[in-house]
Design a protein that fits this description.
CATH architecture of one domain: Alpha Horseshoe
Helix content: 55-70%
Structural class: mainly alpha
Number of strands: 0
Shape: elongated
CATH topology of one domain: Leucine-rich Repeat Variant
Radius of gyration: 27 Å
Order of helices and strands: HHHHHHHHHHHHHHHHHHHH
CATH superfamily of one domain: Leucine-rich Repeat Variant
Strand content: under 5%
CATH class of one domain: Mainly Alpha
C-alpha cells in the first residue's frame, strides 16, 4: 500500500464510532501524514475525546501548516489542559504566511490565556505586521499578557516600539518594568541608545531590586558614561545583586573615578562582590587596588582567587613575587 493510500485509509478511520480506533489511526498517521490531511485533522481537533484532540493537534504541529491556525487558537480554550498545552506549542510552529491573519486577530481575543499564547506565536514568527497588536498589548489589563508583549517586541527589534516601551517603565507590574528595560536595549537603534540613559537612571531607583539590577546591566551594555555617578550611588544598594551589576557596569564604562568606591568591596563578606570588583578594578587600571588584590590571592573562594590573579596580571603585577 502506498503512503498516500495508507494516509487516506487512516483519515477515513477518524470517523470510526469507536474512540480507540480514532486514536490508533492518529498514532499511525504520524508516519505518513502530509499537508493533504490538514482539513481532516482540523476537524479532529473538535472530537469528543480529549486524547483524539491532543493527537490531532500534535500532528498539526508536525505539519506546521498555517491553515490550522484558527482551529489551534480555538483549542487554547479546550477543557483538557493537555490539549491546551499542545495547541500553544503547535501555534509556535506555524511559519507560513497563511497563519498571519488568524494570529494577528487572536492577539485581541477576549481570553487572556489565548492572547498570551498568540503573542508567543507571533514572537516566533518575527512578523513586522505584529508591531501594532504587540504595542496595543502593552496596555492589556492582564500583566502576564503585557509581559509576553514586551518580550515579543524585543524579538521584533523594531525601533518604532521605543516610545511605547518607555511609557510602560512605570507599569504597576515589576516584571513588566524589568522586561521593558531589557527590551529597550534590544529595540532602540544604536544612535538612540544614549537617549535611554535618563529613563534607565530613574530605573536605578525603582522599588523592585530586580528592576534596579536590570537597569544597571543595560546601562553598562549601552555604554552610557553619563550614568556613572548614579551607578556609584547604586553601590550602596541594600541588595547585593544590584551592587554586583553596578560594579560590572562601572568596569565596562571604564569609570576610573569609581575606583575608591570599589576597593572596599574587595574586603567584603560577599564572594561574588569580591570577584566582580577585582575584575572591574583591573578594567579601570586602578593600581591603588594592588595591595587588597594581593591579599585576595589567599581568599577562601577559588573564583575570587582566580579573579584577583587575573586582575593583578592585567595591572602587570607578578602575583608570585
Amino acid at each position: 500500500m502506498s503512503a498516500d493510500v495508507e494516509e487516506m485509509d487512516l483519515l477515513a478511520r477518524l470517523d470510526h464510532p469507536e474512540v480507540e480506533q480514532r486514536q490508533l489511526a492518529l498514532m499511525a498517521l504520524e508516519e505518513v501524514v502530509s499537508p493533504a490531511a490538514v482539513e481532516r485533522l482540523v476537524s479532529a481537533v473538535s472530537d469528543q475525546d480529549p486524547t483524539v484532540r491532543r493527537l490531532a493537534v500534535a500532528l498539526l504541529e508536525d505539519l506546521g501548516d498555517g491553515r490550522a491556525a484558527q482551529a489551534l487558537i480555538e483549542a487554547l480554550e479546550d477543557s483538557d489542559p493537555a490539549v491546551r498545552e499542545a495547541s500553544a506549542s503547535a501555534l509556535r510552529e506555524l511559519r507560513d504566511d497563511s497563519a498571519a491573519g488568524a494570529l494577528l486577530a487572536g492577539a485581541r481575543h477576549p481570553n487572556p490565556v489565548v492572547r498570551g499564547a498568540v503573542l508567543v506565536a507571533l514572537r516566533e514568527r518575527r512578523d513586522p505586521r505584529a508591531l501594532s497588536p504587540l504595542i496595543d498589548a502593552l496596555r492589556d489589563p492582564v500583566p502576564e499578557v503585557r509581559r509576553e508583549a514586551v518580550v515579543s517586541l524585543a524579538y521584533l527589534r523594531d525601533g518604532q516600539a521605543v516610545p511605547a516601551l518607555r511609557a510602560i517603565l512605570d507599569d504597576p507590574d515589576a516584571r513588566v518594568r524589568r522586561l521593558a528595560i531589557g527590551a529597550l536595549a534590544s529595540v532602540a537603534p544604536p544612535v538612540a541608545t544614549g537617549a535611554l540613559g535618563d529613563v534607565l537612571v530613574s530605573a536605578l531607583r525603582d522599588p523592585d531590586w530586580q528592576v534596579r539590577a536590570e537597569a544597571a546591566i543595560v546601562l553598562g551594555r549601552i555604554g552610557d558614561r553619563a550614568a556613572s555617578p548614579s551607578l556609584v550611588d547604586s553601590l550602596s544598594d541594600p541588595f547585593w545583586q544590584v551592587v554586583k551589576e553596578a560594579v560590572v557596569a562601572l568596569g565596562k564604562l571604564r569609570t576610573v573615578e569609581a575606583a575608591p568606591a570599589l576597593i572596599p568591596l574587595l574586603a567584603g563578606t560577599n564572594a561574588d562582590l569580591r570577584r566582580v570588583s577585582a575584575t572591574a578594578l583591573a578594567e579601570l587600571g586602578a593600581r591603588a587596588a594592588i595591595p587588597p588584590l594581593l591579599a585576595l590571592l589567599d581568599d577562601a573562594d577559588v573564583d575570587v582567587k582566580k579573579s584577583a590573579a587575573r586582575a593583578l596580571a592585567a595591572l602587570q603585577i607578578d602575583d608570585t613575587s
